[in-house]
Write a structure and sequence with these properties.
Layout (H helix, E strand, L loop, with lengths): L1 H18 L5 H4 L3 H9 L4 E7 L2 E7 L8 E7 L2 E9 L11 E6 L21 H14 L11 E9 L7 H14 L9 E8 L2 E4 L3 H4 L4 E8 L3 E12 L1 H29 L14 H19 L6 H22 L5 H23 L14 E5 L7 E7 L2 E10 L5 E2 L2 H7 L3 E2 L1 E6 L16 H14 L10 E10 L4 H15 L9 E11 L7 E8 L3 H6 L2 E7 L4 E8 L4 E2 H25 L13 E6 L2 H8 L4 H10 L2 E4 L4 E6 L2 H15 L12 E9 L3 E5 L7 E4 L21 E9 L6 E4 L11 E2 L23
Parallel strand pairs: 5-6, 16-17, 26-31
Antiparallel strand pairs: 1-2, 2-3, 3-4, 4-6, 7-8, 7-9, 9-10, 10-21, 10-22, 11-12, 12-13, 13-17, 14-15, 18-19, 18-20, 20-21, 23-25, 24-25, 26-27, 26-29, 27-28, 29-30
Helix pairs in contact: 4-5, 4-12, 5-7, 7-15, 8-9, 8-10, 12-13, 17-18
Pfam family, one: RNase_PH_C
Enzyme class: transferase
Subcellular location: Cytoplasm; Mitochondrion intermembrane space; Mitochondrion matrix
Length: 785
């Protein structure tokens, strides 16, 4: 009854509310629930942004009005709807519980899923990677200590196969959160930048991206603050890359202004959270008094490695937690843990900021000790071990046939245009790499993201006409920071060891940031330090993980994870410069181990050869129903694929397998008695098999049986050979009409011999002849193999 009353009230009040949607909610002084109802009944609002001649339309207020925030972003005929919902009660967590899900809908691309139920299942790699980009763009702008379950869902409404939807989804998430009452310090804007013939293109189309040497996604906050960077590039020069970032930030500000206009029209008020989780000042002061000196001693003891340093800090943590419990018996467990973390982080950061020192004794721009080794196991096609400090990565290279390349699902193909790829890098991070236990099944989002970054780093140097599919496997054996960039270095070494003619060696490095915020102006950085080749603890306690890879010439990949609500372009430019210097230093070290690809591949590596099969022998080479090819592949392990009418490509996993395949093919295709057959002559054939469609016959003992179709058995219509009383082993006479010039199959006929004519019957054994009648035209009969 109560529910019915509530619905009726809403219906009666709706016309009045729709007329009031432009009145700022704060002036109405309504309770939060009534304020949300007012927003849900507001009229749709739309803003259009001009991005270098391309229109970006952002609208809200029409769809999904029960969500805390919803926005639809459209470019061309591609439209993405993004919703944001956040609970009003806190979650029992020690971090921001944010979930971002980007889903590719088959209907949006005009397709039907190809699985057995014709429904969307799971998440593809593309969906997961796009979800990660959106998460990294919006997460830094949530208030510190906001531990409320928040979900952002990106739903593809329509895809025109021209405009990419992923960047639209980032802007949609920004608009949905900005227009909601969820506490969020946005908005942000995001664009993709491409470079075609030296021209910088904003939000290039899918076709334009196929010609672009850069694929850069830039997400920025107001006042030209960079929040997230993601890039894949074909050896783009540093100065061109930096200019592309500036172009992207310029257009981001236009998107931000458009969202701010919508915010002003909507008049939504951000909700006040019940609680923002943070350490109590008095508890922090207590920990600082009793633990600061001990923590400082650990962080300035350069004899520690990752494990011993963590053990020493944990010992101090346990001691201090006992003291906190005695001093503050009613303290919450989170407050106890966070109080120690705050002090530990402050001590760590102050050493870097004030003393220009790092916990392992390096200065701010020095690399850790690096060692490289290749050709680890001779049975592998290529292998390398890359060690940087306490980060150790084993990379292996495996070759396979081009047919084993990774095929994209129809939905990804329709959206991105990528049908298959013959180079892939798979990243594995087992729990023992950090002295932990855990499940090792499946691939989590972190592993997928790190592998994709390393793959982007190496892809530009892979030759486009390489005759094999290449799989690089990167297994992290030890981890203390920057394992994805170690994978790029190890993968480059392994490719050269395998004899892949890559255009240049690739190296990668991670740059960290320790920033001090201004006490006068909120959000402004007063002082900062950039750290080269960061440790895991420097990533954890720092403000940025800036990963960049490339060759001596330029940049191939970049990914910036920024924990602050934004950093100035100046800091990003300095980070690129510092990473470039470190990258060159790493390449010099790698070149001492192997400086260029091996002249040839390993002796036990795969082999590809082409075989020319004349049309006259193709039927015999393939065999009935492909029998010979299947037997060849089963016995030798090779893979055979037809290139054109007379050319076949043979892939063998080892040279010995190729040798076996050669002998097999030679035996099948060797010259036999067929050259004695005369066009128009009649021969005695032996039936070897009865089939529904005809009989299999041989004209001589070592011949491959061919099919004499029912249509060529008799002048009458024959449904099954048994109707004529034919049996296995029976001899029949057939006329030979050579081979079909189109497919090379032998053409034989029995029915033409039943017409009154004169012919010569021949057998290969005695060459005897009998007068049977005149010959018949070649076109009147055919036979199938």
């Amino acid at each position: 009854m109560a529910a019915s009353t509530r619905c009726c009230l809403c219906l009666r009040l709706r016309p009045l509310k729709s007329r009031l949607f432009l009145v700022p909610v704060q002036s109405l002084r309504l309770p939060p629930r009534q304020a949300r109802t007012l927003w849900r009944n507001a009229s749709p609002r739309t803003v259009t942004v001009d991005l270098g001649g391309r229109k970006l339309e952002i609208s809200s207020g029409r769809l999904a009005r029960f969500a805390d925030g919803c926005a639809v972003v459209q470019s061309g005929e591609t439209a993405v709807m993004v919703t944001a919902v956040s609970k009003t009660k806190p979650s029992p967590s020690q971090f921001m519980p944010l979930v971002v899900d980007y889903k590719q809908k088959a209907a949006a691309a005009g397709r039907i899923p190809t699985n057995h139920l014709r429904r969307e299942f799971g998440s593809s790699d593309k969906e997961i990677l796009t979800s990660r980009i959106i998460d990294r763009s919006i997460r830094p702008l949530f208030p510190s200590g906001y531990f409320y379950d928040t979900q952002v869902l990106c739903n593809l409404l329509a895809v025109d196969s021209v405009n990419e939807p992923d960047v639209l989804a980032i802007n949609g998430a920004s608009a949905a959160l900005s227009l909601s009452d969820i506490p969020w310090n946005g908005p942000i804007g995001a664009v993709r930048i491409g470079i075609i013939d030296g021209e910088y293109i904003v939000n290039p189309t899918r076709k334009e991206m196929s010609y672009s040497t850069l694929n850069l996604v830039v997400a920025g906050a107001p006042n030209s603050q960079i929040v997230m960077l993601e890039a894949a590039a074909e050896n783009v020069l540093q100065q061109d890359f930096c200019h592309a970032i500036k172009v992207g930030m310029k257009h981001n500000q236009q998107i931000i202004q458009g969202i701010q206009k919508l915010m002003k029209e909507s008049g939504r008020v951000k909700r006040t959270p019940q609680k923002l989780f943070s350490a109590p000042p008095e508890m922090v002061k207590f920990v600082n008094k009793h633990a600061m000196e001990r923590i400082y001693a650990v962080f300035t003891d350069y004899n520690h490695d990752k494990v011993s340093r963590d053990d020493a800090i944990n010992k101090i943590r346990l001691d201090i937690e006992e003291l906190i419990k005695e001093k503050f018996p009613e303290a919450d467990p989170y407050e106890i843990i966070e109080s120690f973390n705050v002090v530990s982080k402050d001590v760590f950061r102050s050493i870097v900021l004030n003393e220009y020192r790092r916990c392992d004794g390096r200065d701010l721009t020095s690399l850790r000790d690096i060692s490289c080794e290749v050709d680890m196991f001779r049975t592998l096609h290529g292998s390398a071990l890359f060690q940087r400090g306490q980060t150790q990565v084993l990379c292996t290279v495996t070759f396979d046939s081009l047919e084993s390349s990774l095929k994209s699902d129809p939905i990804t193909t329709a959206i991105s245009g990528i049908k298959e790829k013959n180079f892939m890098l798979h990243y594995e991070f087992p729990p023992y790499a950090t002295n932990e236990t855990g499940k090792v099944t499946g691939v989590n989002r972190r592993e997928l993201g790190h592998g994709a970054l390393a793959e982007k780093s190496l892809y530009p140097v892979i030759p486009k006409d390489f005759p094999f599919t290449i799989r690089v496997t990167s297994e992290v054996l030890e981890s203390n920071g920057s394992s994805s960039m170690a994978s790029a270095c190890g993968g480059s070494l392994a490719l050269m060891d395998a004899g892949v003619p890559i255009s240049s060696a690739v190296a990668g490095v991670a740059i960290g940031l320790i920033a001090k915020n201004s006490s006068n102006k909120e959000g402004e950085i007063e002082d900062y330090r950039l750290l080269t080749d960061i440790l895991g603890i420097e990533d954890y306690n720092g403000d940025m993980d800036f990963k960049m890879a490339g060759t001596n010439k330029g940049i191939t990949a970049l990914q910036a994870d920024i924990k602050l609500p934004g950093i100035p372009i100046k800091i990003v430019m300095e980070a690129i410069q510092q990473a470039t210097a470190a990258k060159r230093e790493i390449l010099q070290i790698m070149n001492k181990t192997i400086s260029k690809p091996r002249e040839s591949r390993k002796e036990n590596g795969p082999v590809v050869e082409t075989v020319q099969v004349p049309l006259t022998k193709r039927a015999k080479f393939v065999g009935p129903g492909g029998y010979n090819l299947k037997r060849l592949q089963a016995q030798t392990g090779v893979t055979v694929n037809q290139v054109d009418e007379e050319t076949f490509s043979v892939f063998a996993p080892t040279p010995s397998a190729m040798n076996e395949a050669r002998e097999f093919i030679t035996e099948i295709c060797k010259d036999d008695q067929e050259h004695q057959l005369e066009f128009g002559a009649v021969y005695t054939a032996t039936i070897t098999e009865i089939r529904d469609t005809g009989v299999m016959i041989k004209l001589y003992p070592n011949m491959t049986a061919v099919l004499l179709h029912n249509s060529q058995l008799d002048q009458r219509k024959v449904k099954h050979p048994s109707a004529l009383g034919l049996e296995v082993g029976q001899e029949i006479q057939v006329k030979y009409f050579g081979r079909d010039p189109a497919d090379g199959r032998m053409r034989l006929s029995r029915k033409v011999l039943q017409a009154p004519a004169t012919n010569v019957i021949k057998t290969l054994s005695d060459r005897s002849s009998i007068t049977m009648g005149d010959t018949i035209s070649q076109s009147s009969s055919s036979s199938s193999q």
